[in-house]
Design brief:
single chain, alpha+beta, two-stranded antiparallel sheet, 8 helices
Length: about 325
């Protein structure tokens, strides 16, 4: 007597679950991973080559920070915004002008918090002019030398399906086209988030920067483009968007560490979740749904003993 009703309830639950999966998978590609180990909990077309827009600036920041750490580059040094920083750029949200002087640190904030293209280009031009590489004799521009370092970093991180062509990710009237994958961007983001300074930059909802224009001090308050920052344990990392790339988003979320006791032994497991979303039309809605789904998958994985297939490690 109750069988038809029971069958209907099961059917509705299955239908709802299928809808949730489809809605989470509406983007061209996505990946959910345990950020601590790099274990992929779920993915969709995560190896497809796609444009990633301003997610590129994660690589730009990493090259700058590596240069500062390994070669003693001073991030507090003030540099001039060169005319070259405006080439191919149609958006100038902060309103920089050639000749403005600003510290490298504030340029990093501008590039990562408000995703400013001129800031990213200025970083590349300045650091590129100080890079010593075997390619220096090929008459490459400072920006070309910098982008070569971005691609060298990608190779180091085994980002085998990635090509960077500029420091900001602009793909309009650009040949050859840049591309990456959700997997590769996950590898890059784990590398970046292991840097305390990078983690701090991308966790800022707002940040005031200062720059000098013809002897006058200018103040500007940056506002983070990541609308999910600060919600549900989300503490980073970056947005990206272009007509080719669609809406892109990478998120990090944290929960209190899990403590497992066995007798007198105690094991602490940090709980960090990462979501990479490419080619979305609703990145914040989908991103929030994937974080929620990610924690469900994480709890299932944890309860099953945290077994990790080596083939699913970033």
């Amino acid at each position: 007597m109750h069988s038809p009703r029971r069958f209907l309830i099961i059917f509705v639950i299955c239908l709802a679950s299928a809808f949730l999966v489809r809605s989470a998978a509406a983007a061209q590609a996505y990946l959910i991973a345990d950020a601590q180990t790099g274990y992929i909990l779920e993915q969709q077309k995560s190896r497809d080559k796609l444009q990633v827009g301003s997610l590129t600036k994660i690589a730009t920041a990493c090259v700058v920070l590596d240069w500062s750490e390994k070669r003693g580059g001073d991030l507090n040094a003030a540099v001039a915004v060169p005319p070259e920083a405006f080439q191919g750029i149609t958006e100038n949200s902060i309103g920089f002008q050639p000749g403005d002087t600003i510290t490298l640190r504030d340029l990093l904030y501008a590039a990562l918090v408000q995703s400013d293209n001129v800031a990213a280009a200025t970083l590349a031009y300045h650091v590129g002019s100080r890079l010593e590489t075997a390619e220096a004799g090929a008459r490459l521009t400072p920006t070309d030398l910098f982008v070569a370092q971005m691609n060298a970093l990608a190779k180091q991180l085994k980002m085998e399906r990635t090509r960077f062509v500029n420091p900001h990710g602009i793909d309009w009237k650009v040949k050859p086209l840049p591309y990456s994958t959700a997997e590769d961007m996950g590898r890059l983001t784990r590398y970046a988030m292991n840097k305390p300074s990078f983690r701090f930059y991308v966790s800022q909802k707002e940040r005031q920067i200062l720059f000098n224009r013809q002897g006058h001090q200018m103040n500007y308050v940056l506002r983070n483009t990541n609308e999910l920052l600060g919600r549900n344990g989300i503490d980073g990392v970056k947005t990206g968007q272009s007509s080719r790339a669609g809406q892109c988003l990478i998120l990090y979320a944290n929960r209190e560490s899990q403590v497992i006791r066995q007798g007198q032994m105690e094991t602490v497991y940090p709980r960090h979740l990462m979501v990479v979303l490419l080619g979305s039309t609703n990145r914040f809605g989908e991103g929030a749904a994937l974080i929620q789904r990610g924690w469900q998958l994480y709890d299932q994985w944890s309860a099953a003993g945290r077994m990790a297939d080596p083939k699913k490690i970033l």
